[in-house]
Amino acid sequence: MSQRPIYLDNHATTPLDKRVLDAMLPYFTEQFGNAASINHVYGWEAEAAVKQSRETLAAAINASPEEIVFTSGASEANNLAIKGIAEAYFNKGKHIITVKTEHNAILDPCHYLEKLGFDITFLPVKSDGTIDIGDLIGAIRSETILVSVMAANNEIGVIQPIEEIAAICRGNDILFHTDAAQAIGKIPLDVEEMNIDLMSLTAHKIYGPKGIGALYVRRNKPRVQLAPQMHGGGHERGMRSGTLYVPQIVGFAKAVEISLAEMEEETARVVSLRQRLWEQLESIGSIYINGHPTKRLPGNLNISVGGVDGQALLLGLQTAAAVSSGSACTSAKISPSHVLAAIGRSDKLAYASIRFGIGRFNTTEEIDAVAKHSIETIQSLRQAQKVMS
Ligand SMILES: *Cc1c(COP(=O)(O)O)cnc(C)c1O
Question: Which residues, in sequence order, are bridge partners of residue 233?
């Protein structure tokens, strides 16, 4: 087999940490019980594993275990939050505030609600990718039932001031939801201190398994009402029916546990790798960082490259590095990223953008190899453009 490109797409997904796999394995075979089976030891073992995992996850965000609703991932958690709140609170009002740079798993449920008669405000962002707090305050109405702002952006890594946003929501008696799929395990999250009412999580961005996530739903001050979107056996206190996927739940908790324990050390290491990559790339000129220079995820470097064609750039890089141009979820469509458009990038620079997502298993040697290959690619593309013009 020819050598595969270096994996630098850790915002799309991450490899499973071996320690996570080890924790999961027994629950596929010997301890295979249904956590809802109350009559025998198979069920009790599964239930005990779920209970333990729920406690670990709750502790990680300073919540209580009953506030964790397991879902198939952050997309489902976002859908449950947005549609579940809309359905439970429409008598109070039909206005929701979110942001233009959200993940499609927020934007699409919001567009769906518009068709049902809800009014959605999509806040703009500043050129650094953060929202203007004044815009948020200006958008609040008496009918506003929910504000949803992501903790960290999946494309440009920008960290929103969610604590400040949530305080404003609390002061106005409006529920606050945050999509923390990229943030969990990378920046500290405390639902009490930060006044978060609902929060979406997923395992596979932090070296856990795919297909598992959770929605945190506040039970106290205020007690959040949520209309279930999946009806059935009444699992998860009626908020999400379906037999619990025990090995994934165990893996999810293990992944969060490891990420929190190693956050400080990993952040320092990953930031230094990102800095190393950026310094090398920057040296060739006409390369621009997308998003706030410091308020961003440790492993995120999203750049636009001047003087090259976007498609040629991605093709040139692909042999050496697995990276994304725009969001992985939308890269099948050839249209400029909605996030880069929102921060004011021209179509040309948006097309010529690359998202490097550095993660736990990347090494200095890999970063240097990718930097070298990127520089060679960019320089030869620029040279070719000059010859042609
Ligand atoms: C990956 C991601 C999602 C989707 O999560 P899944 O678990 O894959 O459904 C949602 N929001 C953000 C910000 C993400 O990065």
Answer: none
Check residue 386 and give its pLDDT. 80
Domain range for 366 = 6-14+263-388
* Number of structural domains in the chain: 2
Residues 235 and 181 in one domain: yes
Q: Which atom of ligand 1 is nearest to the CA of 75?
A: 9
Q: Which residues are catalytic?
A: 329
* Cα(16)–Cα(288) distance, integer angstroms: 32
What is the SS3 assignment for 365-385? Answer: HHHHHHHHHHHHHHHHHHHHH
For residues 205 and 288, membership in a common domain is answered with no
Q: Which of 223, 257, 291 is the endpoint of a domain?
A: 257
Mean pLDDT by 10 residues, the chain (389 residues): 87 98 98 96 97 98 98 98 98 98 98 98 98 98 98 98 98 98 98 98 98 98 97 93 97 98 98 98 96 97 95 93 71 79 94 96 98 97 84
226 inside domain: yes
Measured from the Cβ of residue 283, the count of other Cβ atoms closer than 10 Å reads: 10
Whether residue 165 is found in the same domain as residue 120: yes
The predicted model scores a pTM of: 0.96
Residue ranges lining ligand 1, Cβ < 6 Å: 73-75, 103, 105, 150, 154, 179, 181-182, 202, 205, 213
Considering only CA atoms, which residue is closest to atom 5 of ligand 1? 74
